[in-house]
Design goal:
Elements (H helix, E strand, L loop, with lengths): L1 H10 L6 H17 L14 H10 L5 E6 L1 H9 L1 E3 L6 E3 L3 H6 L15 H30 L3 E6 L3 H11 L3 H21 L1
Parallel strand pairs: 1-4
Antiparallel strand pairs: 2-3
Amino acid sequence: MFQYFIANAVNEGKLVPEDIIFGLLSKRLEEGYDRGETGFILDGIPRTQVQAEILNQIADIDLVVNFKCVEDSLVKKDFGSQICSHCGKSFDASNSESTSINPCLATRSRHSPLKSSAAIDKEGSHMGKFHAYAEQSKLLEEYYRKQKKLLDFPVSGGPGDTWCGLLAALHLQHLAALHLQHVDAVSISRKLSI
């Protein structure tokens, strides 16, 4: 039954209704508790203070990790890559090395950015959504900050650096060493299989 409502929402490009999300979450947490699970990690929920209040009714929240990314890096991530009007390939407009190492296949020179009115509207729409999300997030952050459950974690490096830094912030450095061993093992096995 839930699958029908979820599929309809997703197919229509809408968010899944909160009552369905929290119904599924309650059921999953209960099943996990019955199997002996002692904890869980949620990603992307709660998004609002109302959702946080509902979540508090169905689970005990020990810690909320707030991944803080500088707006400039988000903007660069979302808008730094452009589409070449000649070859249609994505390229990093802010990095001249990117265009010189990888020239446009159609012109054999630098890529030319495609700047249609639709692309400009899309950027404005993204920035509007970003700012609305930031305002909404402030209320949620304050909600958990008042409860002394919020850990602000600055994100500045790649996934590996972020993971190791997060483990250190959570006082789980021993897991960082295991992660590095796993990464080394994976890279060695890839080299051996090539």
